[in-house]
Write a structure and sequence with these properties.
Pyridoxal 5'-phosphate (PLP)-binding protein, which is involved in PLP homeostasis. This protein has 219 residues and is α/β, with parallel strands linked by helices. It has 9 helices and 8 strands. The longest helix has 21 residues, at 160-180. The radius of gyration is 17 Å and the shape is globular. The protein binds pyridoxal-5'-phosphate.
Length: 219
Amino acid sequence: MDLKENYTAIKNQLPSGVQLVAVSKTHPVEAVQEVYDLGQKVFGENKVQELMEKYPLLPKDIEWHLIGHLQTNKVKYIAPFIDTIQSVDSEKLLAEISKEAGKNSRTIKVLLQVKIAAEESKFGLEIDEAKLLFQKYIDGGFPNIEITGLMGMATFTEDEEQVRGEFSVLKGLFDELTQLKTLETLSMGMSDDFPAAIECGANSVRVGSAIFGRRDYSK
Ligand SMILES: *Cc1c(COP(=O)(O)O)cnc(C)c1O
């Protein structure tokens, strides 16, 4: 696995202004360090425990993003250092993040995760729930967080038209909400569909296997 070759190839496909979140889940700290040494500063992990294991072993200027489902009772572990939580899917979680951020005298950036896929996925807000939550945020309900954008995952399918349709729905919501309060980040697109996501308006992509190689879950 040539990390440099992979990383460079991905970077070369991203228009300027599109952020790359390198998804390092299941891959060892040595691989993260190697990609960091190539200039990457933003990394994503989907599990609190794995992030807590890696965090102390890696450079402190890494901007960590949590991209997987987060239980409220685990927020306290990452609140001291997490840059962005991309996977906020309930009001309860948003309130807990605000509370723990306050305890650490900091502001944590979050993205609202919105359900756009047709497949029965467990996590993500419905469009209407996301709108309500954003309004509560604007009204001052969560003082120690900053909602900086939206995150979504398209259906896992070969049908590119369907994937683009789903991305476009999230872009529509992004445009609507940003009228109320400016949003910066539209996070959509992974290794297999990031070019389509960018064409549909994504300005942040979460790429794992195309950089680090296949994940081996058997270990
Ligand atoms: C694992 C993961 C990714 C990266 O997936 P790849 O297909 O390996 O690029 C992106 N987003 C989320 C939420 C993930 O869990």
